């Protein structure tokens, strides 16, 4: 049975985040021939229509109010609610990002919908959508399905592959003039100051090089940054490294930090506390580098290197450079 599916585009610095394309892939799968609609907010929304259509959107609803250029809870809530009322979808997807985690529960509560959050898998069973999501800090997984009514879910980045771009596709576009009650907007964004340097977004990176207390200092992250640069990845950290002020908390991976699921995760000088494992144990390939052969990180690693990270990481960097040059 065909369905109408709505995807909220997640935009950062004027560009679509990869999780939006992954959500479109999920939407195409469950639509079963129905219409996939993407909605994108902000004054540059029109610039993103082509990419959305190439990756699965049949329709794009544009909301170009400049008040939506930067995310605020109240403005996005009002705009998204009006888009949902306009589209009347059977299924709603957002990314499990800071935006999706904040706005989705508010929408679900206001519209009386259930919400399946942090989905890592999706399958169709007897015509029903069955979602897989982690519980108990990633130690177990459950499958959930909505018996009736609108299906509302957030999709964890890097778990559902995006569709290959089809440049022959073009979407029907519609501009929606939403009515924002601007007197009720409690937050006004005047400026955004980023603590982290420009580069690959940690939560969406395909390769993550993470450092723990074993890096010993802020300078100890430099070899990790060089390896991440060679591999086109991002640098992360354990809470221990952040608490020791070796790096900013924006890089923290774990139960109280970011949850990442890259193709390759290299843990450098990380002991493997359970709180850290909760944020990275679902990575596809895990490589652990630690001087302590009994470190808990080796219990989840696919490959382990017992050695000094300040010797091992530069060696890896040089070898990867050679391989990449040859290819």
UniProtKB/TrEMBL annotation:
Record-linked SMART domains: ETF (SM00893)
Binding locations of FAD: 213, 238-239, 252-256, 269-276, 290
Residue ranges annotated for the Electron transfer flavoprotein alpha/beta-subunit N-terminal domain, each copy included: 5-192
Record-stated family: Belongs to the ETF alpha-subunit/FixB family.
Electron transport in keyword set: yes
Gene3D superfamilies, sorted: HUPs (3.40.50.620), TPP-binding domain (3.40.50.1220)
Taxonomic source organism: Melghirimyces algeriensis
Signal peptide: none
Record note on cofactor: Binds 1 FAD per dimer.
Gene Ontology BP, a term: fatty acid beta-oxidation using acyl-CoA dehydrogenase
Entry keyword set: Electron transport, FAD, Flavoprotein, Transport
GO molecular function terms noted in the UniProt entry: electron transfer activity; flavin adenine dinucleotide binding
Name assigned to this protein: Electron transfer flavoprotein alpha subunit apoprotein
Named cofactor requirement(s): FAD
Record's keyword annotation contains Ion transport: no
């Amino acid at each position: 049975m065909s369905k109408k599916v709505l995807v909220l585009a997640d935009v950062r610095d004027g560009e679509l985040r990869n999780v939006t394309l992954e959500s479109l892939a999920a939407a195409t799968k469950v639509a079963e021939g129905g219409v996939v609609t993407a909605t994108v907010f902000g004054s540059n929304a029109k610039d993103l229509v082509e990419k959305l259509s190439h990756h699965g959107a049949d329709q794009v609803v544009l909301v170009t109010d400049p008040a939506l250029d930067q995310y605020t809870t109240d403005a996005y809530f009002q705009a998204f609610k009006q888009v949902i009322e306009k589209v009347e979808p059977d299924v709603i997807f957002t990314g499990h990002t800071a935006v999706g985690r904040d706005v989705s529960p508010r929408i679900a509560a206001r519209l009386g919908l259930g919400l399946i959050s942090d989905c890592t898998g999706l399958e169709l069973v007897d015509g029903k959508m069955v979602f897989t999501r982690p519980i108990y800090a990633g130690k177990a997984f459950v499958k959930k399905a909505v018996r009736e009514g609108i299906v509302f879910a957030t999709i964890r980045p890097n778990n559902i592959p995006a569709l290959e771009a089809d440049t022959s596709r073009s979407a029907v576009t519609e501009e929606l003039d939403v009515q924002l009650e601007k007197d009720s907007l409690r937050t006004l964004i005047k400026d955004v100051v980023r603590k982290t340097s420009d580069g690959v977004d940690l939560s969406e990176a395909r390769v993550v090089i993470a450092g723990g207390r074993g890096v010993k200092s802020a300078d100890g992250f430099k070899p990790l940054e060089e390896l991440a640069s060679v591999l086109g990845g991002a640098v992360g950290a354990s809470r221990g490294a952040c608490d020791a002020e070796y790096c900013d908390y924006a890089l923290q991976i774990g139960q109280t930090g970011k949850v990442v699921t890259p193709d390759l995760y290299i843990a450098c000088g990380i002991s493997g506390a359970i709180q850290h494992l909760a944020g990275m144990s679902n990575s596809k390939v895990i490589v652990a580098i630690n001087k302590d052969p009994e470190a808990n990180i080796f219990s989840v690693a696919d490959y382990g290197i017992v050695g000094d990270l300040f010797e091992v990481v530069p060696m890896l960097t040089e070898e990867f450079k050679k391989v990449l040059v040859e290819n």
